[in-house]
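[agent] plan:
  1. take the single chain provided in the ticket
  2. run structure prediction with default settings
  3. attach structure tokens to the ticket
  4. add a short note for the reviewer (M.T.)
[agent] executing step 1
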Amino acid sequence: MSNKDKQSWFQRLRNKKQEDAAVTEAESTQPHESEGMPPASQESEEEPGAQQVQIAPVLETPAPEIPEQDPDSPATSGDTGDTVEDGEPEKAGSQEEGAQGWFKRLKKGLKKSTSAVSDGITGIFTKRKLDDETLEELEDLLITADLGVNVAAKVASALSRDRFNKEISDEEVKNILSSEIEAILAPVAQPLMLNSANKPHVILMAGVNGAGKTTTIGKLGKKFKDDGKRVMLAAGDTFRAAAVEQLQVWGDRVGVPVITKEIGSDAAALAYEAMERAIAENVDVLLIDTAGRLQNRDELMAELAKVVRVIGNKLDGAPHDTVIVLDATTGQNAVHQVEVFQKLANISGIVMTKLDGSARGGVLVACADKFGLPVHAIGVGEAIEDLQPFDARDFARALVGLEE
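[agent] step 2 finished; step 3 output follows
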């Protein structure tokens, strides 16, 4: 989307603010459809080669993540148990309304992170000159907001180039900060791609306990199914009955098969069986869940590496994507998770969830700056439409509290 198009989009967002608020209030009184009862999918023609699949808005209510409870590992966030509810379908709006709704959800979801950054900048730069003291305060603020030391230094350097020892407003600082963050994020804002030459295209989902892997798999599976793809899910967290049951709920409601084995079965054996079934049934995309594991548990990480090897032995080049799901509430620990998982599972992309539950959304910028891995999507809530393709400019401006 060009800057001109985005500016006009922002203008429409402001002009329709009151109208959107009234629509939102009216819709909040209506029942919603369970996300497990999607409309019938339509067949779509495929062209050979790479095909871009984006996570478009689907206006339904969520099947929230069932919290992972590995008895050997402490919880990584303060999640509580969730349920899947049924309801009445909600009508989808136009593309324009969907885009407006997403940016509003993004702003709302990032509210805690935005407040931490925006309020801090306002406090530092109210009628003050840009000097060594203010630059140091700004760097401390950005590090505290989990953007990382390197990003904080880059922003301070950009500010000092032209504005040192001059008065500068908080709004000017926010615009410069937004531009610097966008420059870091733009190269990694890449939607998840399916290659139709891969039969199946195998996506392995990894991450620590409670990050939201199973829920993310369900949302992705629904989107791929709605796009006309033959989808299969594999419940690779074989040690937790709750995880298997949750994925089966998603499979039933989306209308796709779920490969399972007895609780306690070997995860690599399940992955192999799922590969065999997917190949035999000409499946387009196979999404494989894995057991949540802490990055400091060597034996569990070795088990994940075994799953990766088994998949590769069954189908050359698989898994075609190994996506780590990160929980934003873990802050800088997310950076360490990527580092460790990358060594054993060759992580190819990132999905970050729970940005709405944390004031530490800046960690996504730190991950992008350090690893340069594609950021496929972000989640700012539990509903399906709250998981969207990552847009660098929207995220940067929302994070610092700017509207245009």
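[agent] step 4 note for reviewer: Residues 2-14, 20-94 have pLDDT under 50 and may be disordered.
[agent] ticket updated
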